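ok so for the tutorial part 2 we go from a plain amino acid sequence to predicted structure tokens. step 1 is just haveing the sequence, like this:
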Amino acid sequence: MAETTSKTNPAEKVARIATETTAAGVAQGKKMVEEGSARAQKLMTDGATQARAAMEQGVAQASKSAEDLMKAAQDAMDFSRGNVEALTRATQVYMAGVQDLGKQAFAMLQGMADHAVESAKALAAVKSLKEAADVQSAFAKAGMERAMSEGAKLQEASIKLVETSSAPIAARVTVAFEKVSKPLAA
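step 2 — the prediction. this is what the tokens look like for a chain of 186 residues:
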């Protein structure tokens, strides 16, 4: 019987080897599937993490850009508001100054007219040609002196008006140059 067992043993041996080989192949296949699954899971996790980080970074950059844009828009509005306020102040000062200059010019002309009337009365009362020439000469001299004096006053008032009314605009120009030069200096 020992011989029969040894003859049937090769079939059992082949079956056992086939079973072991199949079991080893299945184990190796199972191991490969598990490793592949773990790698796929890791790739998905890493990819999701990277995608989330990229999205968060993009959102942060977009938020910062939006904040910077809003700040720039607010700065531009504030600057424009300052310009309008400066122009309004300059216009108010200029208009008040022009009114004052008009009053001064009217007073000057009124004084000259009064002086001319006085001279005409004096000329009407003269008794000689020499006296008329003296009155006329005195009138012309006084009129010229008065015109020069009043003209100088009007000129000084005009210069002061220009300086005063342009001061708010000059201040805004200074602010504008400072704003422009800050980015250039940085």
